Each structure stands twice: as C-alpha cells, then as structure tokens.
UniProtKB/TrEMBL annotation:
Any one GO molecular-function label of the UniProt entry: long-chain-fatty-acyl-CoA reductase activity
Coiled coil region boundaries: none
EC class name: oxidoreductase
Protein name, entry field: Acyl-CoA reductase
Catalytic activity reported: a long-chain fatty aldehyde + NADP(+) + CoA = a long-chain fatty acyl-CoA + NADPH + H(+)
Example GO biological process: bioluminescence
Gene source species: Saccharothrix espanaensis (strain ATCC 51144 / DSM 44229 / JCM 9112 / NBRC 15066 / NRRL 15764)
Pfam families reported in the protein's UniProt record: LuxC (PF05893)
Catalytic activity, EC: 1.2.1.50
Family in the record: Belongs to the LuxC family.
Keyword list, A-Z: NADP, Oxidoreductase
Amino acid sequence: MSVSWIPEHVTGPTEPFTLTSGPHAWHGARPTDWAAVGADLRRAHERLRELPVRRIVDALDLAAARWADRDFPERRAAVAAAAQVTGMSTETVDRALDSELGTLRAPSLIAALQRELGDPEVLDGFRAGTTAIGPRVVLAVFSGNVPGLPARSLARALLVKAALIAKIPAKEPNFTAAFLRTLHEVQPLLADAVVATYWGRADDATMSAALEQADAVVAYGSDQACAAVRAKVAPHQIYEEHGHKLSFGVIGDEYFRLHGPVEVARRIAADCSDLDQHACLSPQVYLVAAPHARAVAEHVAHAMRRTAADCPPGTVADHDATVLQHRRLVAEWRAASTPTGEVWAADGLEWTVVLDDELLPLSGAGNRVARIVAVPDVAAAVDVMRPYARYLQNVGLGAVGEEFRRAAEELARLGASRLAEPGTMSRAGMEWRHDGQPRIAGLLRWCDVEHGNWSTAVPAGVVP
C-alpha cells in the first residue's frame, strides 16, 4: 500500500520514491510539478471554505471513530507497519494511536476551537462583527517516530479550512496516507484538500518548490532540522515549529502522602514507559521529595516490570543500546560511590530505574529509563529545572494545594507550556496550546467590522 496520498484531482506528473528501514521498504509517489499542485490545492481550499466547520468536525470525528476500533483493517495494517519501522511493540503503537485519535473526536475538537476562538462558527463567516480566515495552503514538515503524530496538525489545518501539503515522517510513514483514505470515504472534500508525500532532507529543490505554494508552514524535528526550514520561510508566511523539548516529573511530600508509594510509582512508570519514552512529552527525570525518593524508586522498579509485561518495550537499536548500557554503567558507578544511589534494571534492556541525589547533565533519552532524583521539596525541583528553561515543555506536577499553585505559577513563568497529572504526561489533549502557542488561532487572520451600515447589511437570522 502506498505511503503517499495524492487526490485524483491533482493530475500533474509524479515520480516514485522508496523509504527503507532495515529489511523493510515502503513505496509512494511524489509530484514533480509543484506549481500545478499548488493551483489544485488552492481550488480544493475554495471548495473546503463552503463546508461548515461543524461538518468538518463531524467528519474528523467519524474517521477517528473508525480508527478507534483496534480491529479496523486500515489501523491494523498501519500498526504493523509502524511497529516494523519504529521498533515499538504493537501494543505500544496501539496505545499511542488510542491517545492521538482520541484528540480527533468531536468533543475534543470543539473544546479546542472554543478555547482558542470562542465561537467556532467565526470560521464560517461573520459572527458578532468578526470572522476568521485560514490560509489557503499549509505545508507541514513532520519528523520523529511517534505513531499518529501528524493527526493534530492535519486536523488543525482542515478545521481552519486550509489545504495541506504534508511531508510524511521517514520514521513512521504509514499513518498519514492510511488515515486520509478513511477520511476520503467519510468526507471527500477534506481528503481532497491534502497531498501527503515524502522527500529527503537534502532535497532542497523539492522543499523550496513545495514551500512556494504555502501561506503557512509547520515544522517538526530537531533544532537543526527546524532551523533549516525556518531559513527558507518568507516574511509573508505564517511559521510555527516544534523543535527539541524536555519534560520533567515532580513528586512532592503531600502528593506522596495523598496517593501512597504504590500509586505514585505506577504513575511514574506509566510516564516513563508510554511510547517507550521517546516523545518530547515523556519525562527525562522525576524529581521526588527526598524523604520518599528511595521508597518511590523501589516501587517504580516493580511497576516498570509490570508495565513491561503488560505493554512490551520495543527493539532498542544498536546505537541506542550502546548509549543505554553506558548510562547504566555510569549510574552504577555513582551508586557505588554514594550512600544514597542505587540502580534497578531488567536482565535485558527492557527497563531501568536509577536513584540519585544529583541531576547530572542530561545525556541520552528514551527506552524506559526512570531517573529518580531526590530534592528537598517542590520549590527545589522547580529550581533544578531552571537551566533547562529554554527547552522546558511538559511537567508532571505531583503537588497539592498552595504548593501546587505556587509551583504552577513559577513553572509557567519559567517556560513550561503544559502541567499534567503524573501518569498522564504523554497524553496531551487537543485543547493544549502546543508549546505554548494557539495552534488553531495562530493559523488565522481576522477581519472585524467597524461600520455604521453593518446592522442593515446583516441578513435576518444572522448573528451580527
């Protein structure tokens, strides 16, 4: 099955491409006349503008409902392919898709629209003297190996009635086209407004040609990859990026006493195991109130073992395995050199728990390593994060009452864009302003009416 999606109305010439990962290969087609693609997508945008936003929400919801069934054939094929290319277990991929597809259900989409726009129907025309206009074409450059990652940006573009050029991620190329095939069955106008394909990072000619068609650009990837895209964006183009980010967890004294060591450990293990800890939303470190750090770490080791049995970890690539083994050796050396440190680990590389009293320079990430670092209290945990403020994204904040309020306000000022309950760090809702910015409203321009003739120009039954 092709990993690209080119609607039938896009009739220009194409060329084949092949993506490989070890013994696995995936094939697709890539347009070669991007000016023609741009013209076709702008016409698709005009047709999309006639579709009420509520019908767009309903279509996305129906497609997501089909994909919510784990036995849905398109999903089963996409899960199997994602497991091959990412090395994740099928259960890990399924759980990732459960989370991502849940954000495309109608209540989540409506909540996101209302949070950012107030009245979603400003996308359909003037409401109370204002209307919102989306870009004609969005270019989205996807990266990473998180299954279902393109779903949010795809939905945001279609909600604002923009056509989309999607550069699919090489590390998980199957989801986008598969989901678009389902969306085409549900509402062809939406899928017909998207071209999903692939080109290599070094293919500047294709990147520039696709970029010329866009009014807005969304980029995912490393800081280096995002910088390369940013350098090509013109002043008139809206630009948003999602680069390198770090996330932390915190467990305060009162939170520990409220929930107990077993439940706290279960939540930490979930955060450090979801998506094999490869998402930016996954914690690199859990900062735990010192009196409870050892008890938490011991219980986390048991919880990580249970989680690995329930949701097996994926295959660790050779380079990552070397890094992980080195991290274990360093942790074991420190544990032998300090009275408070300790390491718990599976016989293989399935999971690792490290207890330390110092946050060493962060090196390496992922592959289910729960680093528990003892701190005096929640305020001290916030201070530990300050050197990483530039990259701070998500904090699993285990605190209660006034301590929670003070920490939340300080973390918001520090740069965190999301504060989550421990145990839910990787499951962000569509309502989250991704990386601290309104990602729906950020694609829009507005028109406000300040004119004396407005009241007489408004048809009967239309909200002025």
